[in-house]
Design goal:
Length: 196
């Protein structure tokens, strides 16, 4: 009997998680499978996952010319979309599509999984924000200096000229104006789920 109760509770919480994911992104901008994975990862963090009222989902299955970083308001479900560059080690032929993830130091690849948006600092690209890897497969992110910053190869003029963004060393990179919008909307401590 206890086993049946356990199975019932498991099914109930699985459905509850699905409902939560479905109530987010009413415009359907994010692939449902990726959104579901992101919400499950957030829920696994408990209160910490909801603390800032936002969740960021990065869909690197999309071409770099497309908006593929999504900021979700957990209260309203509303989504704001941005363009973001990926790592050169994840796109060796530079066709604008991410082919693989890696967290190996020196790979210049984008890491996959759940990260935390951390403190601001000034680096070689100016205003930048550290990222803490929260999964076994991306815990090297801070040591690898995988951060959020702006760069010229993410600007609209670059995209217009080349039809794709340039590549980072694994960082999440915005245009200068998009970085300003992003940090205005996303508080420190927000979870970022990166997948494809």
């Amino acid at each position: 009997m206890l086993r049946r109760v356990d199975l019932f509770l498991l099914a109930f919480f699985s459905l509850a998680g699905g409902s939560h994911a479905q109530s987010l992104d009413p415009a359907g901008l994010i692939r449902p499978v990726l959104l579901e994975r992101a919400v499950e990862a957030m829920e696994a963090r408990g209160h910490d996952g909801h603390a800032t009222g936002k969740l960021v989902v990065v869909d690197y299955s999309l071409h770099s010319s497309q908006e593929r970083l999504f900021v979700i308001d957990l209260g309203s479900g509303a989504v704001t979309a941005f363009r973001a560059a990926h790592g050169r080690g994840s796109d060796a032929d530079h066709n604008g599509y991410l082919d693989s993830f890696s967290s190996v130091p020196g790979s210049q690849a984008s890491p996959e999984g759940l990260l935390r948006f951390a403190e601001e600092y000034t680096g070689k690209h100016g205003q930048s924000f550290r990222l803490d890897g929260l999964d076994e497969g991306n815990r090297t992110s801070r040591a690898r200096a995988i951060v959020i910053h702006a760069a010229s190869y993410a600007e609209p003029a670059f995209l217009k000229l080349h039809g794709k963004m340039g590549r980072s060393n694994g960082c999440i990179v915005f245009s200068k104006s998009d970085l300003a919008r992003f940090i205005e909307e996303v508080p420190e401590g927000t979870l970022i789920f990166v997948g494809a």
